[in-house]
Amino acid sequence: MTRQHSKRPPNQLPEGWVWEPLGAIVSxxxxxxxxxxxxxxxxxxxxxxxxxxxxxxxxxxPRGPVTDxxxxxxxxxxxxxxxxRTNSLALVGKCGxxxxxxxxxxxxxxxxxxxxxxxxxxxxxxxxxxxxxxxxLSRLRSLATAGVSQYNxxxxxxxxxxxxxxxxxPVQHVMLRLIRREQRLRDTIDKKLTFFRRxxxxxxxxxxxxxxxxxxxxxxxxxxxxxxxxxxxxWKVVRVEEIAEEVSESSPEHGxxxxxxxTKHDGLVDSLEYFGKRxxx
Length: 281
Description:
- By secondary structure, this protein is an alpha+beta fold.
- Helices cover about 30% and strands about 20% of the residues.
- The protein is built from 8 helices and 18 strands.
- Strands 2-11-7-9 form a 4-stranded antiparallel β-sheet, with helices on one face. Strands 6-3-10 form a 3-stranded mixed β-sheet, with no helix packed on it.
- The longest helix is centred in the last third of the chain and has 41 residues, at about 170-210.
């Protein structure tokens, strides 16, 4: 992909607003730790999978043997902004804000970069909202270059080539209040949608296994016992291989097709979004 140049956008701004490169409102870019979390002991380590909806999740983190020296340099604090510099095109550039102090000393993985925001120039939550917006992510990914099996965004290019329209701090506070209000409304709607989706899934499950039948199909034929369940006696039971065939095909390295994974509790999910990394061939 072609990288943008470090040139101020031409758009006119309201009075008091200024165009700033990201490097003018964050103090530096810090790489995370490269320690292995395979043994899962030591210090909690935030990875890509722990960034959801612009927020860094701090629960149930893997652990790694981080040294005291590294911990003193990389310990996460409230209002730290983390940026994913290496991943698939769908995930590279994702950002998350540490919205509360970690309950214990916590660091972040090497493919994440910490961007400490200068509090006299911008509010961390404001910067995180801009970077996590659809427009922000689109511009971030325009800075990405294709590697062997993933995309990369050079932190130096990020600081010099990504420009933000920065309003005065009082305006940022007002904008964030509106964003939080909208988010509360969205959360309420999402909860209702989740309830109805689960209700629908439960109904479909009961219909598909025969534990609930529509009136026009009630025949009073009783049930037939299978190895793990029971089904209506008038149903024909077949093996999966009788109605389907297995197809093995690799996903192109830089393909745009969504790859789904089958999970135990959530069914079919977007593999990259769910696991936070590529787990398929």
